[in-house]
């Protein structure tokens, strides 16, 4: 077992950002309550941090009746286009119907070996790095890079080497676009804000066009080389589900829609996993007893055998750790009402934007208890909701029919990478100065 040193992240260089953020959220809740209105520029948002209000609001609303705030659709258009994350209404129902089979257990099972292959390459680099007596590894950088390689491989790379190579280029360009959009679109809700940073806006559009051209070439290559054999990658499964035979007399996804769904695969497919793994490794450094517990579980469940989906599902403690990481460092979904919504004596008017404060709910002492800021994976031992006093208080992948379609792919990816890391390395905190952190649009 080789020990690797992790560079101190902002989590370890003082107060946890989630704790700090949650403290600010707590101040907001005291001042404004758990349901209130705030503004981003000229755009009003309904702030929701009350799980019971959220339950009542969502109970009578069809999944197709939820939209994405227009201000965010425009903000992220070069990155997601009109993919599943952004579409609404009947368009969303159709795309969801076509895309969902790509993430079936049978298809995900076939992707396990690709995840193992990419992760093993990363760990071999770490091994060589450690034996060369280098002082530390930039683990976060490698995790993000490997997550990108995995999504490129499972999306395009099982049969077509050229597509896999282009997939890696797409991933790098998407990362560049992410940073460009973050730098140029921070005046959300301010009219004509795209003209505040014209060079960045034009750069994002240029990168977007390059990504579209690469993806379209890969889609055409897949179409030309497809056979009757079972498809093994996400694009192949998507194309098979988009055949005329699969939609007799029905609507198929256009080339534009296929490109946008591929961008959604890429960005959504690596983002949650990479961030979850980065935070997990930091927390395992601070709580080495959980490194020990997870290694024991890996030894008992997988041993020296090959990793497969059945064994991964049996890694229960690893599932607790993942849920706890998602609770502590959670995304925050947003919605837009596409119709009037009645909640008790309140009417939420059509078109109103909503910010569902998952971070605030996940750090609410009334829901979780006084240990809400502590890393305690065992809270999920006998409870899918981690002991939260309300089932709508823990929403790591959203809620209702618009729950993340790729959540099982993310879970498998997370368990494969973490299993292989802990099987070969032990983790400890570097004593070298910390790297500066950065924030990015996601």
From TrEMBL:
Belongs to the cytochrome P450 family. SUPFAM superfamilies: Cytochrome P450. Pfam families: p450. Its cofactor is heme. GO terms for cellular component: membrane. GO terms for molecular function: heme binding; iron ion binding; monooxygenase activity; oxidoreductase activity, acting on paired donors, with incorporation or reduction of molecular oxygen. It comes from the Eukaryota. It is found in: Membrane. The keyword Transferase does not apply. Keywords: Heme, Iron, Membrane, Metal-binding, Monooxygenase, Oxidoreductase, Transmembrane, Transmembrane helix. Transmembrane segments: none annotated. Heme binds at residue 404. The keyword Mitochondrion does not apply. This is Cytochrome P450.
């Amino acid at each position: 077992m080789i020990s690797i040193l992790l560079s101190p992240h902002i989590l370890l260089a003082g107060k946890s950002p989630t704790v700090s953020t949650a403290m600010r959220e707590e101040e907001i809740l005291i001042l404004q309550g758990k349901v209130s209105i705030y503004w981003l520029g000229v755009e009003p948002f309904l702030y929701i941090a009350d799980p019971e209000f959220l339950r009542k609001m969502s109970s009578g609303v069809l999944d197709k009746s939820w939209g994405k705030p227009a201000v965010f659709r425009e903000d992220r258009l070069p990155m997601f286009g009109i993919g599943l994350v952004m579409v609404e209404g009947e368009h969303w129902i159709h795309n969801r119907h076509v895309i969902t089979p790509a993430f079936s257990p049978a298809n995900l099972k076939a992707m396990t070996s690709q995840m193992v292959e990419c992760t093993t390459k990363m760990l071999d680099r770490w091994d060589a790095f450690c034996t060369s007596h280098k002082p530390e590894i930039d683990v976060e950088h490698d995790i993000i890079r490997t997550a990108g390689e995995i999504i490129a491989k499972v999306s395009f790379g099982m049969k077509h080497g050229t597509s896999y190579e282009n997939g890696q280029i797409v991933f790098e360009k998407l990362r560049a676009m992410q940073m460009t959009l973050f730098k140029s679109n921070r005046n959300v809700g301010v009219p004509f804000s795209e003209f505040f940073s014209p060079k960045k806006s034009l750069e994002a559009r240029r990168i977007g066009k390059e990504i579209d051209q690469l993806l379209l070439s890969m889609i055409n290559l897949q179409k030309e080389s497809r056979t009757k054999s079972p498809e093994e990658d996400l694009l192949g499964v998507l194309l098979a589900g988009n055949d005329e035979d699969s939609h007799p007399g029905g609507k198929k996804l256009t080339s534009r829609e296929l490109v946008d769904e591929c961008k959604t695969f890429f960005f959504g497919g690596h983002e949650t996993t990479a961030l979850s793994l980065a935070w997990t490794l930091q927390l395992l450094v601070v709580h080495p007893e959980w490194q020990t517990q997870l290694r024991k579980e890996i030894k008992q469940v997988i041993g020296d055998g090959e990793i497969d989906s059945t064994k991964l599902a049996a890694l229960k403690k690893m599932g607790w750790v993942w849920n706890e990481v998602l609770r502590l460092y959670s995304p925050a979904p947003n919605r837009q009402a596409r119709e009037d919504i009645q909640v008790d004596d309140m009417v939420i008017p059509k078109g109103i934007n909503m910010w569902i404060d998952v971070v605030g709910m996940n750090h609410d002492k009334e829901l979780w208890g006084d240990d809400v800021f502590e890393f305690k994976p065992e809270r999920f031992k006998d409870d899918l909701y981690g002991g939260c006093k309300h089932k709508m208080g823990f929403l790591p992948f959203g809620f209702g029919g618009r729950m993340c379609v790729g959540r099982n792919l993310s879970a498998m990816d997370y368990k494969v990478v973490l299993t292989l890391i802990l099987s070969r390395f032990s983790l400890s905190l570097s004593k070298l100065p910390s790297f500066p952190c950065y924030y990015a649009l996601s």
